[in-house]
Structure formats: structure tokens, C-alpha cells
Amino acid sequence: MTKLLLTTFLLCFLVTPAFAEDKETTVIPQSKSQVHLSFAPVVKQITPSVINIFTKRVVTRTVSPFMNDPLFSQFFQGMGFSQQRLEGSLGSGVIVDTEGLAVTNAHVIRGADEITISLSDGREFPAKIVLQDEASDLALLKINTQGEKLPAARLETSEKLEVGDLVIAIGNPFGVGQTVTSGIISALARSSMNINNYNFFIQTDAAINPGNSGGPLVSMSGGVIGINSAIYSKDGGSLGIGFAIPSEMVQTILSAEKNGQISRSGELVRPWVGLTAQDVTPDIAASLGLKTPTGALVSDLHNASPALAAGLRKGDVITAINGHHLRDASEMKFRLATLGLGEKAQLTYKRAGDTFDTTLQSIAPPDSPPRDERKISGRNPLNGARVANINPAVEVELGLKNMPSKGVVITSITPRTAASQIVNLGDIILSINGRRISDPKQVEEEMAHPGREGWILKILSSGQERTLIVR
């Protein structure tokens, strides 16, 4: 597991003896199986499908004789010679299809140039990335088995889990080899840690350490109920607080790959609802007359949102989706993210003290307003850039987040062009030479005619507004 220090977690497994009433008598074990309780049958069933993942990537850095000198290094930045070195990392995963499709964490294979997996019996195979979804921190690998069938694990719903249920975690901690640890479900729907975009996790105290990332969390029936993703730790070791991504999100990734729902940036295209919500705090609950501070308060709705079409309005509190009562906005986001494209969901919400039910149909991110994408050319600082109107489809395709609802965004940049030197993918063009930019055609017009001082561009980049003067 790569270091996510906000990431690796686990609680020590503690069994509290139950004290019988005085009138009850002690039950003596009647068989060998009752005397020797063991996880071995479950372990034998699941371990053949658990894989160790080894990745390699080439890292290039510039070496200068002045790089460690506090005085001269500032005058010789970018000068020196390039040096390449090979970096390796390790993680875990689980095979979910006999043809060699495996699930792991996106952070396990991030930046990998070469991936090798090994099975519990020692066999090794090369693998390639099929899908890398940073939003959920999940990735799919295709193992090159050369036609050989591999043992596959069974996904099991996590919805029936209860706090206190026994579970086991399997992975390759610290590279020592495949290791099995046991524990219990410590909490469900944990959303207080900022680990991925959805923040909806199963918490367990089964020991998880670096290298366990991507490995399965397994129920006592032998089904995969989650993918171990992160631990909370002060020193990188297990403290008994670990988090796993629920199997429902894994199933969503598998379905999206099967149906070809993959964007240009290599991430899956999820259903779009055009809805933003926030947690219901005790103060908000009191002001709305709610008994408990649960649910998701609708704070914004896109004009094309199917939630708007379903009758929701700002200020409504969504309390349940498909019968699942919502604890907070993170759970709402998770529930909606696991819908299939075109799938309907039953929503329950409160408005002005009354309770309503409605049906929401998920849709693909709309390409509206039309993107009107244009490539900028000629002798100007944006030569080599493509620009387009901002719309939900563009945001999803580029993997952009927290975008304004209107404006012009840079959608691609040709390497070694003028644009590649001054702007970045996803930058928003606010104005050129004092003219407010509202569509791609205006960008073309302004870049064709420099002002007295050349071109003055106002850009919104990574949330920060900056002004560029290019002569």
C-alpha cells in the first residue's frame, strides 16, 4: 500500500467474554469442529484468487552540481543533466473473472510503466491497466494469462453487514508474502476521512499494513465485501483502524468497464444527477424541524439536472435512496454513484415538514451547452490549445472538478507549442485583452489580434486567478 498517511487503518481485535446468568450451565463442546474453530475453510477458498502486485516506473530527474547548494541552486534552476532511475512499489488485488480481470486500488498502480502479478502458488504473469478511476481509488487490471483460466473470487453485497461481524483481510504487507489477518466490522458508512471522492467506507480492525492496499476484505461466507484501501497510522503500521471500499462500488466499476463507460481520460463515466448537497448539522436540523441531523440538504441543482425534473428543489432534505436511509451527504453521493446509466432510483425527501417520494432517472453527463470546441492556431501564446464551452460532459471527460457552470476551458494542449509553455489542461479563460470570454469563438477572435502590449490573459488555474502578459 502506498503511503497515504491519512490512509492505512485498523483496530486491535478484542473479544469480550459473555457472562451467562447464574441459572445457565456451561456447554461442553460435543465435536472436534466445535473445539477447533478456524478461518481455514474460508482462507482456502479465497486465497487462490488474491494476487500480489509489483509495479515499476521510470523516474526522470534533473541533476545539477549546485542542486544542494542553498545559494547557487536558485540561480541554476532547470540546468544540469537528466538522470533516470527505476522505482518499484507493491500492493495487492483480487481476481474477479476467470479470464484474468482483477481489482486493486488506483493508487497501487498509479504511474506504473510495468506491472507483474503473482498468485499464491508462485506463478507470475504480466498485467496491464484497463481502467483507473481516481474518484473511487479503484482500478481494473487485465492479466495476460495466455488463455489459462484463473481462480476468481465472488463479490458479495456489503449491505447486510452488521457492526461486530467477523471478517478477514488478505494481502501482501511490507512485501513479506500473502498474509491473512482477522477482525470485525468496526463501523459502517464511515465518511469522516477524506480518502477518495466518495468517502463511504467499511471500517475494520483486521490488521492492514502497507502492501495490503487493493486486497480483499472477506466475509465468513467467503465473499469479497470490500477492497482494503487505507489505514490510519502515525508511523505507517497498523493501529487497528482500516478502511475498505464497499463491494457495491467495485461492482459499479466492473459494470462500467463491461458497458464501455470509459472517458477520454481513462476514468469511468458515472451517471450524472447535477445535484450538490451538504450534511445536515444539528443547527440545520433544528431550523427545519427535523428530529435528527441526518440526510443530505440540497444546496444546488444544475438546470439540466434529472433531480430538478424529478421535483427536487434547493432546501429539500433527501432522507433515503432506494430504501437506504442516508446518514449524510457522502452516503447520498455514494448511493447515486453506484447507479447504472439510465437506472431509476426512488428518493424520499422532506420539504417544509412534509415527506415526499419521487423517482429519479440517472442520465449520462449532458453535452449542453454545445462544447463548440476550437483549436487555436497562428502566432499567439495559445497556439496549440483547444478550447470549449464548459458543460457536464466536458467536465467528466477531462476529470475536472469544482468547475463553474459557464465559461471556456482548455481541453487539450499540443506538446512543444506556445500554449504548452503558459497554460494547463483544465485552465479557464476569463478574459483576453480586457474582453470577458464567454464562448470559444471569442478566444479565436482575440488571439488573432494582439493589443498594444501583446496579449493580456486572465486565467483561472487550480482555483487561483492569474494574469499573463505575453508580448
Strand content: 25-35%
CATH class of the domain at 46-143 reads Mainly Beta
- The percent range for helix content is 10-25%
CATH architecture assignment of the domain at 46-143: Beta Barrel
Could you say what the CATH topology of the domain at 46-143 is called? Thrombin, subunit H
| Mean model confidence by pLDDT | 83
| Number of extended strands | 25
Low-confidence stretches: 1-24
Topology:
Elements lengths: L31 H4 L4 H7 L3 E14 L17 E15 L5 E5 H4 L4 E5 L5 E10 L4 E6 L22 E6 L7 E12 L10 E4 L11 E3 L5 E8 L10 E5 H12 L16 E5 L2 H7 L7 E6 L4 H4 L7 E5 L2 E2 L3 H9 L6 E8 L2 E8 L12 E2 L9 E5 L2 H7 L9 E6 L4 H5 L5 E5 L2 E2 L3 H8 L7 E7 L2 E7 L1
Write a structural description.
The protein has about 475 residues and is an alpha+beta fold. Among the domains are: about 45-145, Trypsin-like serine proteases (Thrombin, subunit H, Beta Barrel), CATH 2.40.10.10; about 275-360, Roll (Pdz3 Domain), CATH 2.30.42; about 375-470, Pdz3 Domain. The chain contains ten helices and 25 strands. The strands form four sheets. Strands 19, 20, 21, 22, 23, 24 and 25 form a seven-stranded antiparallel sheet that branches. The protein has a six-stranded antiparallel beta barrel with strand order 1-2-3-6-5-4. It has a six-stranded antiparallel barrel with strand order 7-8-9-12-11-10. It is globular and about 95 Å long. The model is unreliable at about 1-25 (pLDDT under 50).
